């Protein structure tokens, strides 16, 4: 599968996924503009996905902290 071009997807919870370019993007996901080899896409994700917690959890924790 070395010849496959991938794209980086993100969902509303700001979680990332690698997906073969040219295939229909699954519901709930959208391309973030990065595509290339699987290694290039992995590098993009590693650089940008610095907090693996879902967005809803990060917001809930922030609300809890702000309330104190």
Give your account of this protein's structure.
By secondary structure, this protein is α+β, with helices and mostly antiparallel strands. The protein has a single domain, classed as Rubredoxin-like. About 35% of the residues lie in helices and about 30% in strands. It has two helices and three strands. The protein has helices spanning about 40-50, 55-65; strands at about 5-10, 15-20, 30-35. A three-stranded antiparallel beta sheet has the order 2-1-3, covered by helices on one side. Strand 1 and strand 2 (about 15-20) form a beta hairpin. The longest helix is centred in the C-terminal third of the chain and has 13 residues, at about 55-65. The model has no long low-confidence stretch (mean pLDDT about 90).
End-to-end gap: 51 Å
* Spatial order of strands in the largest sheet: 2-1-3
Estimate percent helicity: 25-40%
CATH topology: Rubredoxin-like
Mean pLDDT: 91
Shape: elongated
The fourth-level CATH homologous superfamily is Structural Genomics, Unknown Function 30-nov-00 1gh9 Mol_id
Radius of gyration: 15 Å
What characterizes the major β-sheet? 3 strands, antiparallel
Number of strands: 3
